[in-house]
């Protein structure tokens, strides 16, 4: 055995952070090209960050957070919750980005109604 650790893919925390950055980017209505230009990297690099394929350095996370207006600590998984699981945060759930985009475009009365329906569905006896 060579002592080399087999590549097991991206670290779950890196994936979680990338998904959270993507959620903030979408919420800001910004595409990958614009974010990349603002933080002086290519849109391909932003893609890699958002997929967790490349880790985001502390300084880069600070720059991205400044552009997208969030606190850098807000993108990390909750301690004690497995990273990249649905419980780790809204941004880790498939379809959440599309839902958030649609929700943000709705008139206020529709958002209030949808939120009321969502709260009903989260109850265990609603199924």
TrEMBL record:
<dbReference type="InterPro" id="IPR010982">
    <property type="entry name" value="Lambda_DNA-bd_dom_sf"/>
</dbReference>
<dbReference type="Pfam" id="PF01381">
    <property type="entry name" value="HTH_3"/>
</dbReference>
<feature type="domain" description="HTH cro/C1-type">
    <location>
        <begin position="21"/>
        <end position="75"/>
    </location>
</feature>
<protein>
    <submittedName>
        <fullName>Helix-turn-helix domain-containing protein</fullName>
    </submittedName>
</protein>
<dbReference type="InterPro" id="IPR001387">
    <property type="entry name" value="Cro/C1-type_HTH"/>
</dbReference>
